[in-house]
């Protein structure tokens, strides 16, 4: 018997079909964020990153153009198993022949090259308006600005992005998740917490007044607890976003770097699923603050995946990655994080949830703890290796990445 067959026998004793778990995982889409490839710079303003988020590190070889970024995405995706989607930001619009369109003037044509790229790879595209790194961000405010010129500029940007999202969905044949996240906030205690939130609410209403096909575009709203330089007040807080999505029939997005450090998104998933048809996740790794470290196969990533699978909600959750580490090889950052999301999902699919739930419901919490601990040392690695083999990717991706670094990245 080979290692997978032996492992499959062991999982069978717990009522788990390991090959079925692999086959289920093969059909789970994970949306890969394009912005790990260039430290969230984009192609339009090339302004340094603002919005209370930060990349640290200066690892050589970051992508500077559409051709470089797509080559790097291709390399990363060739090393990532499973079904993938591309998550784009509006600042990655591609301008040709000296043309430039500001964020409030963007049109589908500025993303034609991305559509071609995605279609050739049989992939859908998710989208994000870019409300940061731009001269029209005034006093760290966009959609909540008291300056009507500023607010209107960003409302128009949001509207343009709804149109572009529908274009992505229609061209690729895959629904597009359009995520709204604004950085707006104050470093110090504000005099007026109410008015910025009222203006944000009005701005969202205006953006959502653009007609769009709800079967093709899912608009999500991402909350945040604080940003760097905006430590005292964030307009798009959790309560604001929760209430807004529920009142307006859009989808909540939880980024697990966006809560107080002792709060965990894994515990929020079941509550959100009970009140929303769909939910969306940005999977990241906060270290002390929203530091956007590469996703590891760690306890919280596993717990997030467990909550999705145990609730039988794989078709109700839009899963995306969101982190940016400029201190290591960026292709490796993508591959490591994406593989770890999938690893966590496979681990969850190999967990005997029914048996564990029965132990909980019958009050046998002793057995529940013992069984949970026992499961941790089952031969998960052998099932993971079989998944990689089924998907035709090597377990070792480091050598391939080192070679790409020597042949391509080091020459930039
Ligand atoms: C670049 C992304 O839009 C950004 O990371 C956002 O999703 C976020 O998480 C901000 O902290
Ligand atoms: Mn995020």
Automatic annotation (TrEMBL):
<dbReference type="InterPro" id="IPR050337">
    <property type="entry name" value="L-rhamnose_isomerase"/>
</dbReference>
<feature type="binding site">
    <location>
        <position position="258"/>
    </location>
    <ligand>
        <name>Mn(2+)</name>
    </ligand>
</feature>
<keyword id="KW-0684">Rhamnose metabolism</keyword>
<dbReference type="InterPro" id="IPR009308">
    <property type="entry name" value="Rhamnose_isomerase"/>
</dbReference>
<dbReference type="Pfam" id="PF06134">
    <property type="entry name" value="RhaA"/>
</dbReference>
<comment type="similarity">
    <text>Belongs to the rhamnose isomerase family.</text>
</comment>
<keyword id="KW-0413">Isomerase</keyword>
<keyword id="KW-0963">Cytoplasm</keyword>
<dbReference type="InterPro" id="IPR036237">
    <property type="entry name" value="Xyl_isomerase-like_sf"/>
</dbReference>
<feature type="binding site">
    <location>
        <position position="290"/>
    </location>
    <ligand>
        <name>Mn(2+)</name>
    </ligand>
</feature>
<keyword id="KW-0464">Manganese</keyword>
<comment type="function">
    <text>Catalyzes the interconversion of L-rhamnose and L-rhamnulose.</text>
</comment>
<comment type="pathway">
    <text>Carbohydrate degradation; L-rhamnose degradation; glycerone phosphate from L-rhamnose: step 1/3.</text>
</comment>
<dbReference type="GO" id="GO:0030145">
    <property type="term" value="F:manganese ion binding"/>
</dbReference>
<feature type="binding site">
    <location>
        <position position="292"/>
    </location>
    <ligand>
        <name>Mn(2+)</name>
    </ligand>
</feature>
<protein>
    <recommendedName>
        <fullName>L-rhamnose isomerase</fullName>
        <ecNumber>5.3.1.14</ecNumber>
    </recommendedName>
</protein>
<dbReference type="GO" id="GO:0019324">
    <property type="term" value="P:L-lyxose metabolic process"/>
</dbReference>
<keyword id="KW-0479">Metal-binding</keyword>
<dbReference type="GO" id="GO:0005737">
    <property type="term" value="C:cytoplasm"/>
</dbReference>
<dbReference type="GO" id="GO:0019301">
    <property type="term" value="P:rhamnose catabolic process"/>
</dbReference>
<dbReference type="GO" id="GO:0008740">
    <property type="term" value="F:L-rhamnose isomerase activity"/>
</dbReference>
């Amino acid at each position: 018997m080979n290692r997978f067959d032996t492992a499959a026998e062991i999982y069978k004793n717990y009522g788990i079909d390991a090959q079925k778990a692999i086959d289920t995982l093969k059909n789970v889409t994970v949306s890969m964020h394009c912005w790990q490839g260039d430290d969230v710079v984009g192609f339009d303003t090339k302004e340094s990153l603002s919005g209370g988020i930060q990349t640290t590190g200066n690892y050589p070889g970051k992508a500077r153009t559409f051709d470089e970024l797509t080559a790097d995405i291709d390399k990363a995706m060739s090393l990532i198993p499973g079904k993938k989607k591309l998550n784009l930001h509006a600042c990655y619009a591609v301008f040709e022949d000296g043309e430039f369109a500001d964020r409030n003037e963007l049109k589908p044509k500025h993303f034609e090259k991305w559509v071609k790229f995605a279609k050739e790879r049989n992939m859908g595209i998710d989208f994000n308006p870019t409300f940061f790194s731009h001269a029209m961000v005034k006093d760290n405010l966009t959609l909540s600005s008291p300056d009507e010129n500023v607010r209107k500029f960003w409302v128009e940007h949001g509207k343009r992005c709804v149109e572009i999202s529908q274009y992505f969905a229609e061209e690729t044949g895959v629904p597009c998740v359009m995520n709204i996240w604004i950085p707006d906030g104050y470093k110090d205690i504000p005099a007026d917490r109410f008015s910025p939130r009222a203006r944000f609410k009005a701005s969202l209403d205006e953006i959502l007044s653009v007609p769009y096909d709800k079967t093709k575009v899912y608009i999500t709203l991402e909350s945040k607890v604080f940003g760097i330089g905006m430590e005292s007040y964030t307009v798009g807080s959790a309560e604001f976003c929760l209430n807004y999505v529920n009142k307006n029939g859009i989808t909540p997005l939880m980024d697990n770097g966006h809560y107080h450090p002792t709060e965990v998104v894994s515990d929020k998933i079941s509550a959100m699923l009970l009140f929303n048809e769909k939910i969306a996740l940005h999977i990241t790794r906060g270290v002390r603050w929203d530091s956007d470290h590469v996703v590891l196969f760690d306890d919280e990533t596993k717990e997030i995946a467990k909550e999705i699978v145990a609730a039988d909600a794989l078709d109700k959750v839009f899963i995306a990655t969101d982190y940016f580490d400029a201190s290591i090889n960026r292709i490796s950052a993508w591959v490591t994080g994406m593989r770890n999301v999938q690893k966590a999902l496979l681990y969850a699919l190999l967990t005997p949830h029914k048996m564990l739930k029965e132990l909980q419901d019958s009050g046998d919490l002793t057995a529940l703890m013992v069984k949970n601990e026992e499961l941790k040392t089952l031969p998960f690695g052998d099932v993971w290796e079989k998944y990689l083999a089924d998907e035709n990717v090597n377990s070792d991706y480091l050598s391939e990445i080192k070679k790409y670094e020597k042949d391509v990245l080091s020459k930039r």
